[in-house]
Amino acid sequence: xxxxxxxxxxxxxxxxxxxxxxxxxxxxxxxxxxxxxxxxxxxxxxxxxxxxxxxxxxxxxxxxxxxxxxxxxxxxxxxxxxxxxxxxxxxxxxxxxxxxxxxxxxxxxxxxxxxxxxxxxxxxxxxxxxxxxxxx
Length: 136
What we know:
- By secondary structure, this protein is mainly alpha-helical.
- It has one domain (6-127).
- Helix content is 75%, strand content 0%.
- Helix 1 packs antiparallel against helix 3 (46-70) and helix 3 (46-70) packs antiparallel against helix 4 (74-100).
């Protein structure tokens, strides 16, 4: 069985997470009434959509940050993996709390599941040395 280096796996994770977040964020910004039903989430009223579009801008920015890591030196990969763990824990924690308090429907559970799953995966990759320079 072939084993992959932490560097390879980290770059694959960045490609996957970056594409997912960039696409979802752009979709929430530009066509939220199309994207939300695909997530099995009810479309809110027009006043709430403006805030959802703002969230989309943030999600797209996180996605492009991951994609930036693909063309960057190893040290930047490590920084991006570490910094986005903070974003993932914050977004996952907030959305899970909102779900548990009944402010968001349970259909939103995919958000904290994805955020926490990626935070764990990134932490493991960093612990295994992803993004360390050859001199470390």
